[in-house]
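Please discuss these two lines.
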Amino acid sequence: MKALGKGSVASLVRIGLMIAWWALWACAAFVGLAAVAYSVVLAMVANGAIDAAELQNSDGFQIGAFHINFDQPGAATWPIAIPSLLTVAVMIAGALIIVWRLRRLFDSFSSGEPFRRENAAHLRVIWITMVAVELARYFLTASITGLVVAFGEAQGVGVREVSLSVDPSTWGSILILIVLAEVFREGARLKEEQELTI
């Protein structure tokens, strides 16, 4: 099977990216509903419509490595839950941007024209988005630590569990994308020069 053009591997990847696009939108809707539901529960507990003692013995829910319950809904849960929901939202938004740009990239691969000038721009936007998501993740993780220190720890959640981890594979991928963006930009320039010469 050929790599580029119609009926190629690039066409199959393009279909996979379309599926990922809709799956990410479903995840975004779920996170939005979770944020709204959490806000409603906190508001109802604050107004006395729900007794916090009834929720105290509930299993709560899991966000990443954190188990959240409503033992102290006005204090110790929101400093963990809100930044965690924001972290997930930032990651989904970044993934949507990246998948959209990859779809555009693989559209040109499927048409058999890889060295278009806009492909370099797509790769540039992808690596910039990856940098922004990583930096936002660091900031939000640090904010969880700060909020836990300021407002106290929720049951089962300690500051030791919140750590800033640097993922070398992510930063390596970013460096590779920076180089590939320049390769595609140079390839597009050479292709344009060749077309002008002919």
Helices lie at 9-47, 52-56, 78-110, 117-151, 168-197. Residues 9-197 form one domain.
